[in-house]
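Ticket #4471: structure export looks truncated?
Reporter: QA, pipeline team
Priority: medium

Steps to reproduce: submit the single chain below to the structure queue and open the exported record.
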Amino acid sequence: MSSLPPEYLDPQTPPDVEVTDRARPRFPDPTMGVAVPPQTLSATHGLVTVGDSLTHGMSSAAVFHTDLSWPAIIARSLEVALPVPSYGGPLGGLPFNIEGLLRALQAKFGDRVNPFEFFALPVELHRLCDANEDYWERGDGARPPRTDLRYANLGIYGWDVRDCLSYTDAVATARLAATPTHNDLMGAVPSNDSEIAARSVLAPFGPSAAQIDAAAALGADGGIATLVIAHGANNALRSVVDKRVAWSDTGYDTLEGKNGFTVWRPTHFALEYGRLVDAVHQIDARRVVLATVPHVTIAPIAKGVNPAQPGQKWRDGSRYFPYYTDPWIKETDFDPTKHRCITHQQARAIDSAIDQYNVMIADSVRHARSQGSDWYVFDMCGVLDGLAQRRYAADDDAARRNEWEPHHVPAEFTDLDTRFFLSDSSGRLQGGLFGLDGVHPTTSGYAVLADAIREVLITAGLDAKPIDYTDLRTKDTLNTNPPALLTTALDLITPFLDRLVTRRR
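Actual output as written to the record:
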């Protein structure tokens, strides 16, 4: 419960959510202040990662440059092998590459669309979207996944803690068989993309293996030097993606029952994450890193707006805007009775619940280390908080009141920020750390995360080589060559964006 005044609180918030007025402190010490004896166990697998879309390497609504995900960047720093799946398609990536779409439109129309071409733009847009759907539902993308190679990056987009524990290749296969494919009028996102993604990772481990079982199988195959677990974001993300707060209730711990909920009560998350921690303890891993859960309200998919006083927070010094809506809605056009949104009270409750998640995660590390296990916490939440542009960096009062600590970023990325990415024929207009879906990082954003994880691994005693940030910035196609037609096509692609972000991610 909370002692805050009623104007801070949403009446639908469950009593186990401890709603707070100020940001909780970061976790500055990956060891949680507990020393453990050095570990000298040998291991066949240098790095294994388990997580959701941030681990899988999704950007701009598609998994495509898996070799530029943070696990792949870290593997190169550690000089270890990290087999990763790859995804093709006419737009490049699963399920729908917004950047690829804009590149294809630009190849057709150039940097600008003249009045005559403007009428042809929707036709070409539909053709490209339909080709993407056909590829994944009926073309080469629908072929069975390869089973001859076990991947060490086990990230699967859209997954929460329960999926990690229970969703198997057999479940994905059954759902694929039960999902009819069809030519959708909106023709963009394949109807079975989640199942394709799951099978692409899990199939090599057998029909009964869930994600955590796949990690255990790699552990049994000679051991794992470093195991990173980054789960929990999807136990809250849909609240800001769907702009709907539905707290977990009966059925939250089943694959079918959980689908109606968008954010987990802390008591429910504790039970789910506790089961995950128990499973991790059984894996043959020399060291384990648990990542905290980011504050999902910071992602640019949740655009803070104040129609009465544009650009202003709910009150001076607050972290929050009065409302959070879709980023393509202009602040001056926003109407809470017309547009999807959540309130500042709901955003505060979501962040407070995540704070409680993260205390549980940190406590799991502290307890494991007190038992002699070489575990560490990676404060992903603190890193992304330290990058938050509109919440803190552009608001001195909120930064001061919440004792905000900016996160240091390599010089190659200091011109980028966490606002929703926009560009036109003149180049990038804003953003750069998050891709075009407003949820997942760009290559530069993943490099910043990798930089922070590398620091944790150095604390753990690993010889982590410097990351080539200049090379990664060069390979960040969204920032090095911003799509010229983004602002021109934004109104046209908004229906597709809306459909993409409201699907299960």
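Status: closed, not a bug. The export was complete when the record was re-opened. Leaving a note from the reviewer for reference: Residues 37-297+354-502 form one domain.
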